[in-house]
Amino acid sequence: MTHPAGHRPPKWANRLLEWYCRPELLEDLQGDLHEYFDRNVARMGYKRARINFVLDVFKFMRPYTIKRPTAIYQLIQKTMLTNHVKITFRNLVKNKTFSLINIGGLAISMVICLLSISFISELNSYDKFNVNHERIYRIQSAYQRSGQPVLNLASSSVYTAKKIKNSFPEVEDLTLVTYGFQGNALTANNDYVSLNGHWATESFFNVFSFDLKQGNPNTALKEPYSLILTERIATSLFGHTQAVGKTIKLQNDREYKVTGIMANVPANSHIQFEVLCSFKTKEIEERNNERFDSWTSLFNHYTYLLLPQNADTEALEAKLINLSEEENAKVNNRSIVLGLQPLDKIAIGTPLMNDLGFSMDQDVVFMVIGLTFIILLSACFNYTNLSIARSFKRTREIGVRKAMGSTRAQVSRLFLTEAIVISILALLIAYPIFEVTKGQVLSFDSELQQAISFETSPKLLVTFVGFALLTGLMAGFLPAVFLSKTKVVNALKGIFSRTSTTSSWNMRKALLVAQYTLSLGFILATTISYSQYKYALDYDLGYQTSGIVNVALGGQDAQTVINEFSKHPQVLGISKSMLTLGTGRYLDFYGHYQNSSDSSQISYNIVNENYLPLHDFEFIAGSNFDKESELVGQSSIIVNEVLLKRFGVDSPTEALGEQMVLSGNKYRIQGVVSDFHSSSLSDEIMPFAFLSTGGFPNASNTLNLKISNDNLTETMSDLKGIWSTIDKAAPFEAEFYDEQIKQTYVSFFSIFKIVSILATIAISIAALTLLGMAIYTTEIKLKEISIRKVLGAQSKHLAYHLSKGFLYPLVLAPVIAIPLTYFVFDEFILTGISYRAPIGILELSGGLAILALIVVLTVSGQIFKSVRANPGATLRSE
Amino acid sequence: MKGTNLGEFEEVVLLTIAALTDEAYSVAICDEIDRVTERKVKLGVVHAVLNRLEKKGFVKSELGEATKERGGRRKRFFTVTHAGKVALTKVKAQRDELWSLIPDFNLKIA
Fold it and tell me: How many domains are contained in chain A?
């Protein structure tokens, strides 16, 4: 090779060229590239020249340069493949235990993989039915009140939508969707059917591709009081879908005209509705509300833009920011910054508050992919480990193959074929399990259950098969590389080269450590998430929740309902409130103490005089509210200790009778209660004030019923009966307070359930590997053990000798797993939770003990069998 | 009926091969085109064209002797075949005819 100054093009690129290029073109082409390389070295330096060489090698991959396999080569390929498959099946049948372990391990993990593949592909399909999905964007608003954190909202204001429509010519079309159309309609047989949906402007069908079966898409939402029904709701209203032109009378005594019937909304649409009402209707209803189309009224409206092909979104975003700045200058104390969110990033994306429909945090999606991959990897380790362990038995076969003229590539292909066949068999087992379990998985989370249907499409099935092939390649890669290395002479003589066996032994140990680590990590994750869940449920919130049922009033007059309910003998007490505390929700406003100019964010709830005693709040100073009826117009409040601390008041009694200004109104402190958790354990305890319903007669929407523990189900059905005499349309919405709190922490519970399933799987796979290795080790060392025994070795020493290979990795695993799991939970999963369960030695060592127990149980059976074997029988059989 | 027509670039390459006589191998052809037409030509393009011309029977090629540069690889030298010469002459005749039809003043560069 004659290159000046020892400058050479990259070896691998050269090889790649030799590999793909037709022999008749190769020499000339290679020469040309080298000549150019030498020139480039002189012109632009060694490094750049090498890069250029690599690029050129890739650029020359063209139809006319690429080798075409010869007929004989193809024939050999086909014959060899048949042979490989045949050998694979013979081997599967010959080593039934190993085959079962391999296929079983892969199948278990594949179930998880199939679940997450279909989960993610379904999430990915969200909103794609819209023909223009790539061109649709939603306006998002970053909303900030001064001194408070920024809220990233999915919604925007009517004002913004109008502004964009009138002064942004680059926007092709725009539709505004207002959330929360609701009404009860009378059916033909005098039942009420509740209609839920949105208001939308007339261009709705220009932007989205929902299937309007009857009616004109351009005009259906034009006139006020027009309704579009889905086929499902039309059928339950009229018994059929030929309903265009009919009128529907809703509770507010307005008549609506049906102007269109559309196909049911696809499950994979982030906007879900049964009814669409024309936006003009909303405008008429809100004509006296001057805030309706103000810049800052941005909680109920969603603006979707249709942009032209290849629109400059950056320029548009810059314009939106300009608009925001202009408008923000006109208002005080708050700012809104508008932005664009692509429709395709709604279902999987950065989580926004106040979203219109289902959306999944992309971090969660990445986590699902990550965990799935880990589980799959573990199953592949299992396969690799056992295949390499068994390699001794197959060295002769490889030797013979090579002696007959097999190339190394062909031997590798044999092992890859084996892995792929096994992986396809695993898929055949995994698929039915997937079909059965998918329903169960969804029941973890009610939101998921609505959003994900897990339908199996042909496309998905193809993906599954492709996935199985890929898994086979992944699992078979290492065995193929390792085993095809075997040297012919050594293999035939039965000599194992020392270096290759030790290196494979080291690798197997490393794989075993990896599997132990995974299992231990999952066990720890399970205990941590469960203890956090238990901790949250058992935590003393500072008030009683047991035996209390919260009933949503749903617009009914509170006093009427109280009068009816209190007649029931099992109802011990009833109070009214605005908000259910301890469930993660909160209301807040700004206020200050006395004449202080230092104001603070204060959470509040509006309750009547029964509320605090009913929930056993602990008074440390002052007294409860007076009776609601005597309190009308008065303004007393009851506050917590943190509030006093916030304003520097030392003793609770000192605060009694003092004045506070909350949201501009004056109040007098009548009592102080000790601190309690008003939101959820994720948040710190906030300054808190109870306001009396006396000042806000219409503010309460929940009744809190203290009921006696006897005959709970009977009481509940009685209450339901009473409710149905008061409200004929709306269902009885009552929930036990304890259940509501449980619901608040359901995400911990979901994590716990998911992690515990993954733990079980990881452990099962690890146990399978262990079992396989134990069987193998004892089998191969049977003679050695017998000889040792004959020479006088004791059973316990033999057992130690056999099991140390499995025990040492067990010591290493916690060293890696414990810090790693702790780090993951500390940094990612439990961040943002203020009150955490401590992670103690007990949880950590408990996990280790479980793993050790599993290892010992799996391995010991095999070891005892071989230690107890009669040496005479083993040795004589030679 | 592949190859009765000569593309514009094919014609340039073919002419260059004829011009370079004994020294016509890919890199030299590239350089020559570069020099004469002052346009950057990619080796990949020239290679593809040479391959096509050979298939059409306009050029034939043989490997030269081992060299010291090029990492020791031999060069493939191209020569224009009879068919190639015929094709070139034909193109030239067509061009000449068209030229002769142009009235003088139309080509005066203002």
Answer: 5
Assigned domain for A64 exists: no
B68 with A28: Cβ contact below 8 A: no
Pairing of strands A334-342, A348-349: unpaired
Q: Which domains does chain B have, with CATH numbers?
A: 8-107 (1.10.10.10)
- Give residue A103's domain range: 73-126+360-493
Which pLDDT tens digit goes with each residue over A76-113?
888 888 999 999 999 899 888 889 988 998 998 999 99
Instruction: For residue B71, list chain A residues with Cβ-Cβ distance below 8 A.
Output: 1-3, 30-31, 34
Helix-strand-coil split of chain A, %, nearest 5: 55, 15, 30
ipTM confidence score: 0.85
Residues A242 and A330 both lie in one domain: yes
CA-based nearest residue to A507, from A393, A398, A384: A384
Query: Distance between CA atoms of A349 and A339, rounded to whole angstroms?
Result: 14
CA-based nearest residue to A425, from A114, A109, A102: A102
Structure-token pair, residue B45: 């393009």
How does residue A160 score in pLDDT terms, banded at 50, 70 and 90? very high
**Whether residues A670 and A735 fall in one domain:** yes
pLDDT of the residue at A503: 62
Shortest Cα distance, chain A CAs vs residue B48, angstroms: 8
Is the pLDDT score of B1 beyond 50? no
Please give the residue that has the higher pLDDT: either A65 or A257.
A257
Phi, psi dihedral angles at B80 (to 5 degrees):
-80, 135
Q: Is residue A66 part of a domain?
A: no
Domain shared by A423 and A515, yes or no? no
Domain end: A299, A328, A357, which one? A357
Query: pLDDT at residue A399 above 80?
Result: yes
How does strand A212-214 pair with strand A255-262? Answer: antiparallel
Indicate the pTM of the whole model: 0.69
Residues A186 and A203 occupy one common structural domain: yes
Min distance A73 CA to chain B CA atoms (Å): 25
pLDDT at A599 over 80: no
Computed over its alpha carbons, how large is the radius of gyration of chain A?
Answer: 36
Q: Using one digit for the tens of pLDDT, what is the confidence trace for A425-455? A: 999 999 999 999 888 877 777 777 777 888 8
Chain B contact probe: residue of A15, A22, A25, A28 with most B CBs at under 10 A: A28
Domain boundary among A294, A329, A357: A357
- What are the CA-CA distances from residue A441 to residues A267, A428, A448, A530 (Å)? 18, 20, 9, 18
Residue A67 lies in a domain: no
**Residues A518, A466: one domain?**
no
CB-based contact A28 B72, cutoff 8 Å = no
Q: Provide the pLDDT confidence category of residue A338 given band limits of 50, 70 and 90.
A: very high
Burial letters B42-75, b for 16+ CB under 10 A, else e: ebeebbbbbbbbbebebbebeeeeeeebbbebbb
Average pLDDT over residues A159-163: 93
State the nearest Cα–Cα gap between B68 and chain A, in angstroms: 6
**For residue range A859-875, what is the model confidence (pLDDT) as tens digits?**
888 888 888 888 887 77
Using the structure block, give the residue that is written with the tokens 């020559």. Answer: B32
How many CB contacts within 8 angstroms connect chain A with chain B? 54
A737-A741-A743-A749 Cα dihedral, nearest 10 degrees: -140
pLDDT digits (tens, 9 = 90+) for B28-70: 999 899 888 888 888 888 888 998 888 888 999 888 887 777 7
Is the pLDDT reported for residue A682 higher than 80? no
Q: Do A839 and A711 belong to one domain?
A: no
Of A46, A44, A59, A45, nearest to A13 by C-alpha is: A59
Are B73 and A30 inside 8 Å of each other by CB?
A: yes
> What is the C-alpha separation between B43 and A128, in angstroms, rounded?
44
Instruction: Tell whether A68 is covered by a domain.
Output: no
Task: Please tell me whether residues A406 and A514 are part of one structural domain.
Answer: no
